[in-house]
Specification:
The structure holds two protein chains of two kinds.
Chain A: H1 8-11, E1 15-18, E2 25-32, E3 35-39, H2 42-47, H3 49-57, H4 69-80, E4 86-88
Parallel strand pairs in A: 2-4
Antiparallel strand pairs in A: 1-2, 2-3
Chain B: E1 10-17, E2 20-34, E3 37-46, H1 54-80, H2 97-104, H3 116-119, E4 122-126, H4 133-150
Classes of the chains: A alpha+beta, B alpha+beta.
Chain lengths: ~90, ~150
């Protein structure tokens, strides 16, 4: 079923970010300073070390991976370098 | 394809009263049964108050459970009155509607037709504790010497 692309991405696209720890490449977007979207694919997820650690920790297949803090740092660094725009940036000077 | 109900299978709600808190959990699931309808099931559990006498604890818990049920069924009434729009024009505050629909689509196709973009992990995080401006200034200061030494990558 084809949908019109998300109109919001026309104003501010979701952009590639690589994790400084494992090299996983995801797509990231920030609609505000507080909000972050991260689109993974299978290749990125298989590289993520925190994902693997979460799998080892998990009991009876229960998923405990809520997100990767290394990736989060890489995204924030990309934001600070201006590679990931913040759509409604209330912190911008 | 039907309109997409709110995908929030578990709601933990704690009601604050003068004489203490009351914890409730609402669990719901919905599964498609044809191209334009689904079955919705839900259950509610309420923690009995330890302070009240047993009979009062039961009746209070039942009353609160009925209240949660009423609230949820108000949401259901809204969903029933809605028509699906395939191409909504969205603002940022609407959240990941397209991504949710893309994920949800996997339940409306045969298993062999499920594509990676329907099941790939997507995170939508709102962190209101993020310190914003001060943090931004700090990270920019931290990056500056590195950029000077290695050049901008």
């Amino acid at each position: 079923m084809g949908y019109r692309p998300d109109n919001r991405l026309a104003d501010a696209p979701i952009v590639p970010v690589a994790c400084a720890r494992c090299g996983a490449r995801v797509l990231a977007r920030k609609s505000s300073w507080a909000q972050t979207s991260v689109q993974w694919d299978a290749a990125a997820l298989s590289l993520c070390r925190q994902k693997r650690e979460a799998q080892t920790r998990s009991i009876a297949g229960e998923e405990t991976f809520v997100g990767c803090t290394d990736l989060r740092d890489s995204i924030l660094e990309a934001v600070a370098r201006g590679r990931v725009p913040v759509v409604n940036d209330e912190t911008a000077s | 394809m039907c309109y997409t109900p709110e995908v929030r299978p578990l709601r933990y709600l704690t009601y604050h009263y003068d004489d203490g808190d009351q914890k409730t959990i609402l669990i719901n699931c919905h599964h498609p049964i044809d191209a334009s309808s689904f079955v919705l099931q839900y259950g509610i559990i309420v923690e009995k108050s330890a302070e009240l006498p047993p009979e009062a604890a039961i009746s209070t818990a039942i009353a609160l459970g009925d209240f949660v049920k009423m609230g949820f069924e108000q949401d259901v009434a809204i969903w029933k009155a809605k028509a699906r729009m395939d191409n909504p024009l969205l603002c940022e505050e609407d959240g990941p509607v397209y991504q949710l629909r893309r994920w949800y689509e996997q339940f409306y196709v045969d298993v062999e037709d499920v594509t990676p973009n329907m099941v790939d992990r997507f995170e939508y995080e709102v962190d209101t504790t993020c310190p914003g401006r001060a943090w931004r200034e700090e990270i920019e200061q931290n990056l500056a010497p590195r950029a000077a030494s290695v050049g901008d990558l």
